[in-house]
Amino acid sequence: MQALLLVAEAAEKSKTAWYVLGSVLALWAVLLAAVGITQPEFPGKPAGRVAVIIVSALLVAAAMTAAVVTS
């Protein structure tokens, strides 16, 4: 019985990547909200908008990938 428990524990994948990337994504969302609320012209130029979209999309994709891989 103990051997089965040890095998099950060894087979479980680390969820550290998910915790880190999920936290970074949440922090990014709070930061965007805070800046967007306090500065109505944010992000300003079209290049700034594109940068925010790209960073957001990359963080979401990374967090989703980490969640699927570690499950």
Descriptive report:
This protein is mainly alpha-helical. The chain has one domain (13-69). The chain is built from three helices and no strands. The protein has helices spanning 2-11, 16-38, 46-69. Helix 2 (16-38) runs antiparallel to helix 3 (46-69). The longest helix has 24 residues, at 46-69.
Tell me the number of structural domains: 1
Q: Which sequence of SSEs, written as H and E, runs from N to C?
A: HHH
Q: Count of DSSP helices? A: 3
- Secondary-structure-based class equals mainly alpha
The geometry reads as elongated
Strand content: under 5%
- Overall strand count: 0
Poorly predicted runs of 5 or more residues:
none
N- and C-termini, Cα separation: 24 Å
Percent of residues in helices comes to over 70%
What quaternary form is this?
Answer: single chain
What is Rg? 18 Å
| Largest beta-sheet characterization | none
Mean pLDDT: 89
